[in-house]
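Comment thread on ticket #2218

A.B. wrote:
> Attaching the input chain for the structure job we discussed in standup.
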Amino acid sequence: MSLDVVNQQNVAVQQVQPPAQQEVRPIRENNFPSALDKDNWKYPMRRVAQEICPGVFLGPYCIATSQSLDYLTERQITHIICVRHSVEARFIKPNFENMERFTYMTLNIADVGSENIIKHFKPVKAFIDAALAANGRVLIHGNAGISRSAALAIAYIMETYQLTYDETIKKMQLIRYCINPNDGFVWQLKEYELIYRAALGCQPGNHHNSNKRSISMVDDSETQNQNRIFKSEPMEE
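C.D. wrote:
> Ran it. Output below, let me know if you need it in another format.
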């Protein structure tokens, strides 16, 4: 399947290059303190956004409507990825395009297994990396924040932190338990795992790589006191 990068509504993006020779300790379970477990997950939590990694939030459309400006402001959101099918465009849409404080990326993706979502993974990663590099914070939303937007978030975290698909969804469900990409998206995510690892020269199960991005590069004083699922530590001498 092609990974040709497509221009999504002329959104300008730039790829952030991780620093060279950044050594990290191989990822272990005790690097990932649990924020939630399924017994603590309550149904109303699916109606709000969760911070799935520093500066990146995943949630439903209801927290990106015109009535949700205060909610977005409190979380210092600056960039929004709006995911909807073209037939949903009348009611799932960018609501703050005329406000300079928000930068949008709008993607037309149907929540069906045959949809080619893999072609969006690279542009989405570039958009998020550019936002974080500019000290922004990103919200990814579809309709419910469960399948399409979750698949994009999984691809971003999987490649950024060099995890497998299985590792990524397991750790994301500690934060947003309701995520559930459709079977076609899961297949494409697993294919993308092989593609990005081949490009990096990684082998399955081998997380150590000198170009791996550390979570410490994007943490700030406000997020250091929060539980972090995605965390890497420098290797001991």
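A.B. wrote:
> Thanks. Noting for the ticket: DSSP finds five helices and five strands in the chain.
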